Amino acid sequence: MAEAQREKPTVPRAPFPLTAYPNGRWLKKIRGKVHFFGVWSFSDSALANDLRVDALIDAVRPAE
After folding, report:
1. Reduced to 3 DSSP states, what percent helix, strand and coil does the chain have, rounded to the nearest 5?
2. How far apart are CA 46 and CA 25, in angstroms?
């Protein structure tokens, strides 16, 4: 049975880099790949995960 459509939440604060996806999770596209960071109800945790992943990606990015 299909899950009922949920209404997407608004962005919790102005400079919020994540997008609400209909499956109930926050997402961000990084280097052409979609990454999920947490559920809508835990936007602070999702933002912390995003910052952690951004730092890891910057650490492994080759120097130009």
Report:
1. 35, 25, 40
2. 9
Query: Quick one: average pLDDT of 23-41?
Result: 93
What does the alpha-carbon distance between residue 17 and residue 14 come to, in Å, rounded to a whole number? Answer: 9
Give the residue among 31, 32, 23 at the shortest CA–CA distance from 56: 31
**pTM of the predicted model, to two decimals?**
0.77
Contact in structure between 12 and 18 (CB atoms under 8 Å): no
**One-letter amino acid for residue 9 of the chain:** P
pLDDT of 45: 96
Letter for the amino acid at 30?
A: I
Q: Report the distance separating Cα 54 and Cα 1, nearest Å.
A: 37
Phi first, then psi: what are they for 42, rounded to 5°? -120, 65
The CA-CA-CA angle for residues 29, 31, 33, to 5°, reads 50
